[in-house]
């Protein structure tokens, strides 16, 4: 297995840093190839601007067509092209980050904004009366798997259906479904650590064991059963889920996960 770890934490000695290091050593010891994109160590530029597209930037700047023109011409910046090549190389992508203000750190969102360019991660495929492009279960990254390894400061009870922060599945849905599944990645259930700032050295031994177990089963873990856009479940072009396909009692984000 070829694994790319996209790591977003400013402190190498953090819990996130330890989980990243453990992922590298565990996977390599099992005979897998591993590459790491350490975004803070790379001084990753988190903002999209005209400099990303060189002479292919429109004036005034329109990000989507500029991004697509530069991608088609092989003229995206070297660091963006390198990350796209890593994604195409990988069988599995691990995203290691802390949940900050209910989402990923800005530097990781900026990695997505720049690397998931037009004609690479979106704007792919034919749009007609039966298809609406290759996305949500199809696309450039089809055949690869992704998993989020996320640390959270609060207790698990606050991230449930009645918890004040809402279900963790709902908080991660925009990343799982809107960022990862959109260009074709199969999304595995996340590895979530709660009370991250309060994990003792003794507790970390148990955390490490559980993380290693997840790492060594990434190839066989069933992905989240998101519905494919072009499978017939959605009306086209409205992309509304057809009536009657949902299981009783399901609503919201859960409608887009197949029952059973």
UniProtKB/TrEMBL annotation:
Q: Does the keyword Kinase apply?
A: no
Please give the family membership noted in the entry.
Belongs to the NAD(P)H dehydrogenase (quinone) family.
Q: Which PANTHER family match?
A: NAD P H OXIDOREDUCTASE-RELATED, NAD(P)H DEHYDROGENASE [QUINONE] 1 ISOFORM 1
Q: Which InterPro entries match?
A: Flavodoxin_fold (IPR003680), Flavoprotein-like_sf (IPR029039), NAD(P)H_dehydrogenase_qn (IPR051545)
Residue ranges of domain Flavodoxin-like fold in the record: 1-215
Give the Gene3D superfamilies listed for this entry. Answer: 3.40.50.360
Q: Which keywords, in A-to-Z order, does the entry hold?
A: Oxidoreductase
Question: Which cellular component terms (GO) are annotated to the entry?
Answer: cytosol
List the source organism: Micromonospora rifamycinica
Check the record and name the SUPFAM superfamilies matching this protein: Flavoproteins
- Report what the protein is called: NAD(P)H dehydrogenase (Quinone)
Recorded hits in Pfam families, A to Z, give:
Flavodoxin_2
**One annotated GO molecular function:** NAD(P)H dehydrogenase (quinone) activity
């Amino acid at each position: 297995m070829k694994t790319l770890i996209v790591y977003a934490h400013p402190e190498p000695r953090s819990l996130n840093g330890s989980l990243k290091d453990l992922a590298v050593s565990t996977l390599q010891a099992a005979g897998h190839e591993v590459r790491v994109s350490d975004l803070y160590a790379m001084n990753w530029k988190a903002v999209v601007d005209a400099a990303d597209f060189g002479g292919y930037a429109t004036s005034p700047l329109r990000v989507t067509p500029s991004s697509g023109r530069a991608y088609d011409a092989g003229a995206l910046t070297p660091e963006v092209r390198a990350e796209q090549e890593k994604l195409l190389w990988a069988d599995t992508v691990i995203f290691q980050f802390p949940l900050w203000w209910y989402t990923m750190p800005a530097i990781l969102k900026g990695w997505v904004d720049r690397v998931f360019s037009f004609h690479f991660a979106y704007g792919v495929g034919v749009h007609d009366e039966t298809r609406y492009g290759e996305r949500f279960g199809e696309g450039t990254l089809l055949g690869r798997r992704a998993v989020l390894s996320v640390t959270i400061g609060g207790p698990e009870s606050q991230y449930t259906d009645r918890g004040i922060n809402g279900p963790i599945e709902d908080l991660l849905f925009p990343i799982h479904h809107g960022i990862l599944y959109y260009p074709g990645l199969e999304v595995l259930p996340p590895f979530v650590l709660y009370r991250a700032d309060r994990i003792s050295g003794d507790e970390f031994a148990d955390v490490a064991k559980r993380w290693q177990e997840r790492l060594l089963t990434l190839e066989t873990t069933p992905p989240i059963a998101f519905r494919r856009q072009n499978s017939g479940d959605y009306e086209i072009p409205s992309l509304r889920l057809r009536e009657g396909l949902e299981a009783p009692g399901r609503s919201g984000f859960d409608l887009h996960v197949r029952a059973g």
